[in-house]
């Protein structure tokens, strides 16, 4: 069985490993529904019950007094993991540390059909952003030790004054990976990270077609009649 | 399908200011009326600024946090009243320095409203942003001041784009 990534389970006793597994599984099942998660949850459920049956070990789940929102969002973690029958493991990794290659980003922007922007400006924009979140697809081939393919498949960034306001810009997901809830997960993690950093006012500007997408994440258009305005916009 | 946050990348703006004088009130005029234009936070008394914010209806914010916000603000402009040495108008803009910027905290002390100070601050802030090459200048306007921003060149919901704010209470349960 492949080990759950994101947990350092080296050098822990067996019981501790199982407790960690159980906690991780519990969190997984209570997280927002993503198709990939459901598959994984079933997989882990079967493993867990197998462990219980074979070893008669009592899994003591820690009392769930903390709400999910209070757990700090790690800077990098695995969002989805799929194991293929041939042994290849695919992971989609979320990171908020700004690890985005500007050439890959430009290729991604091309893929979604955005107008080209100068590379140097893209790089500067990333550097000047308070948070750059990214989704990377990592493919680990079974027989190639340590060899893995890493591809940028999503990005979102936020500018901020580090104290009161943050504005989310440039949310994009590779069209080949859309429809899986990745964009939602990415933005949700960003929000949570921003709130944990005590930035209370999180804003964005949404094309009319995606207003509903953001409403489902907790954004409100024109709250109390407050209007987004742009200076001499060119359509 | 996803939010872009940019309307257009390359734009030469229409000329919004009269050609004889760049601004509706020149720097000289302002000075002769007893006001000094400032572009840095040095000499800006944050407690005085906070009072101006509170007087126009902003929540009272921690001055240390205000300091942090101003230190991470790309452009700001304020008007100092010479006689009292107090800030009477203010505006700032945050952003990524190349594509987008948002203007926040536009205030004019109630005793000094209606004489063009807000406009003076906005015109200069916009020009500073344009000079940096920033084409996308946005802000969030309360309904009662839409009429202040429109003559300055701001358009609300262009092409159906909506300003949205995250609300912890508003989250839709699926």
TrEMBL record, chain B:
Keywords noted in UniProt: Acyltransferase, Transferase
Keyword Acyltransferase: yes
Chaperone recorded as keyword: no
Residue ranges of domain N-acetyltransferase in the record: 36-172
A molecular function (GO) term: N-acetyltransferase activity
GO CC term, one of those recorded: cytoplasm
CDD domains, sorted: NAT_SF
Protein name (Swiss-Prot/TrEMBL): N-acetyltransferase domain-containing protein
Source taxonomy: Eukaryota, Viridiplantae, Streptophyta, Embryophyta, Tracheophyta
């Amino acid at each position: 069985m492949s080990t759950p990534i994101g947990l350092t389970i080296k050098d822990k006793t067996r019981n501790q490993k199982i407790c960690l597994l159980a906690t991780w599984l519990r969190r997984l099942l209570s997280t927002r529904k993503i198709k990939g998660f459901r598959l994984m949850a079933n997989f882990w459920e079967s493993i867990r019950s197998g462990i219980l049956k074979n070893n008669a070990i009592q899994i003591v789940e820690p009392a769930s007094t903390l709400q999910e929102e209070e757990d700090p969002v790690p800077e990098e973690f695995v969002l989805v993991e799929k194991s293929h029958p041939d042994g290849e493991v695919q992971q989609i990794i979320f990171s908020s540390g700004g690890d985005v290659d500007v050439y890959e980003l430009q290729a991604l922007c091309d893929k979604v059909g955005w107008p080209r922007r100068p590379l140097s400006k893209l790089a500067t924009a990333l550097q000047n952003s308070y948070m750059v979140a990214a989704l990377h697809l990592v493919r680990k081939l079974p027989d190639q030790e340590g060899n893995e393919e890493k591809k940028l498949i999503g990005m979102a960034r936020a500018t901020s004054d580090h104290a009161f306001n943050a504005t989310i810009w440039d949310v994009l997901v590779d069209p080949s990976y859309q429809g899986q809830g990745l964009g939602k997960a990415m933005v949700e993690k960003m929000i949570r990270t921003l709130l944990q950093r005590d930035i209370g006012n999180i804003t964005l500007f949404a094309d009319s077609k995606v207003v509903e997408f953001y409403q489902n994440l907790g954004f409100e258009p024109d709250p109390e009649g407050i209007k987004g305005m742009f200076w001499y916009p060119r359509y | 399908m996803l939010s872009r946050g940019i309307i257009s990348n390359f734009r030469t703006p229409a000329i919004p200011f009269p050609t004889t004088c760049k601004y509706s009130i020149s720097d000289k005029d302002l000075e002769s009326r007893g006001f000094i234009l400032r572009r840095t936070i040095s000499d800006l008394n944050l407690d005085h600024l906070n009072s101006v914010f509170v007087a126009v209806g902003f929540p009272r914010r921690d001055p240390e946090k205000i300091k942090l916000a101003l230190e991470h603000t790309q452009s700001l402009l304020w008007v100092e009243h010479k006689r009292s040495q107090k800030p009477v108008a203010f505006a700032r803009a945050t952003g990524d320095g190349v594509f987008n910027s948002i203007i926040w905290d536009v205030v004019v002390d109630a005793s000094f409203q209606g004489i063009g100070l807000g406009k003076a601050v906005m015109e200069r802030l916009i020009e500073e942003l344009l000079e940096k090459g920033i084409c996308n200048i946005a802000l969030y306007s309360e309904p009662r001041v839409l009429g202040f921003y429109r003559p300055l060149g701001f358009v609300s919901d262009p092409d159906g784009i909506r300003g949205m704010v995250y609300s912890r209470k508003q989250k839709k349960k699926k």
